[in-house]
Amino acid sequence: MAISSPGIGSNINVDSIVKQLMTLERQPLTALDTKEVSFQAQLSAYGSLKGTLSSFQSSLASLNSLSRFQARTATSSDTGVATATATSIATTGTFALNVSQLAQSQAIVATGQASTTAAIGAGASTTISFQFGTVTGGTLTNGVYTGATFTQDGTQASGSVTITAENNSLVGIKDAINNANLGVNASIVGDGSATPYRLVLQSASSGANRTMKISVAGDAALSSLLAYDPAGTQNLTQTLAAQDAAFTVNGLALTSRTNTVSTALQGVNLTLLKAGTSTVTVGRDTSAIQTSVAAFVKAYNDVDATLDQLASFNATTRQAGPLNGDFTVRSIQAQLRSTLGGSLGGGLALSNLSQLGITFQRDGTLALDTTKLQAALDANSTEDFAGAFAATGKTTDSLVNYLGSTSASTPGRYALNVTTLATQGTLVGSAAANLTITAGSNDSLAVDINGTATSVTIAAGTYTAATLATAVQSAINGSSDLQAVGAAVTVVANAGVLTITSNRYGSASKASVSGNAAVGLFGNAPVATTGVDVAGTINGTAATGNGQVLSGTTGSSIEGVRLEVVGGATGDRGTVTVMRGFATRVDTLLSGLLSSNGLITTRTDGINRSISDLDDRRTALNRRLVDVEARYRAQFTALDTMMSNMLSTSNFLTQQLNALNNSSNR
Prior knowledge:
- The chain is of the alpha+beta class.
- Helices cover 34% and strands 30% of the residues.
- The strands form twelve sheets. It has a five-stranded antiparallel β-sheet, with no helix packed on it.
- Strand 35 and strand 36 form a beta hairpin.
- Helix 2 runs antiparallel to helix 6 (286-310) and helix 7 runs antiparallel to helix 13.
- The chain is elongated, with a radius of gyration of 43 Å.
């Protein structure tokens, strides 16, 4: 058993001696702790650096977006008459606006009923169908048309609701119409008469082509209440006529189905509020660009200051920054300065920052000359100025749209050659269409458009070839299945033969039909033709076609370049210029630095491994120190015991000698 008490019999202080020896033995632990503190300081410094770089990258977002440079402002001199906003494609200038009439939606009112909940009719299943179109000719007296013509608008979906004994009250009819989302809003008003409750039907959209035609098949009482044909029987009375807005822009007479007008001036949205005159001014929004560029310069200077601080050394105080001497910091700083200090090349109008009023100072920071920046804005096109900062491009052919590029795309000017134009899938009837549609006999059509199948019902009636084409188009486009995937068709009649054309381009574009109406509408052997993708080369390299879009081949200089060919002819189609500006290049650099396998992560992973290694060494050293302390205690305890025994022997011998001396003296 080890003796732990100090100096038993020998007065040696074992605890004190062992503690002093262990203090010396623990000096390597102190060195490890000092190293870990240094490593933790470096990790904290890298965290600060990462945050600063992330903030810098965020500041690039506006300059890396083409829309920032395309921004336009639009103002109206009389905001009571109209307000205006502008998009990036708006043409700058001043435009005179004169509003003479606002658009409105049609409203029609049924005859009064004594109750909103009483049943109307015998409860037989009744179909109420809605069509939308335009009324021309004739006269309108007290809300009733005489001698007018109704022409259905095939671009607007038709639809129907079914009324049975469960919902054949005024409230039931109202709810059924509203729940069906047919583009009609139903409500009930009371006029205070003996039969006060009147059903009001109003088109959900304004415009002259939103006049309703309501067909009722089933219960006679419901037909007497709701059947409405502006060219025939009108059991409801019109209280508001469907009409377009009427106005002039710079003296040119225009109309719009709504009071929100986006087609009068390209890229300008007008909201018409009342009749009157106003002046609309469209200008380039350069103030937003100035603000973004200034934010970019400040953000870079913040990064540069952080890098300097982290790698600093004060010769006077002999104090060093946590990353002093760290190659990673200087490498990041050098890469940023090289990226911003170089030239974009590619023959661009603006290829270096100095042309934009941004220059490097002797201390490595950036300075912005706002006067020179504004001069560059005024002297260069939107596309050229945007190309100095953002990833963008431009084409020389107005029927070729630049859609985008990626970091793999090499900046430059490339020739475009189109060998095949994209086409749409079609289905052409093999015989003239049967112009009479009978409910339950030849009114059902199953269609497959671009791979999406659905079934539709054609309203019963006798048509002309043109009105039948309109009815088929309206029915197909009214399918919720097709609307969900953005599919639609155009149906036209030529010499009585119907043709369906998908709205999509390319090899995925196709159309087919079946059902009891198919043969009557399209004949026994309609011809289906699948669409073709666009094909061509960019810079002499074959590109990949998908619909109307050509994409650069992977691994080539044009990888990631996307162009939309919307028309024109085959052959040489001019050039496309791919630009990757300073903001885009810095953003790419920062993404690499901040990525999971980037320079900063690699460095911090190395530091964490070093800390983990210190922990392992500390654990091993602590285990060794336990053994060392035990050995010291054992050794000094043994020494203490030995010296105690020697002292006891000495005392015994002294006693014996004293006894002998005393015996001899007697």
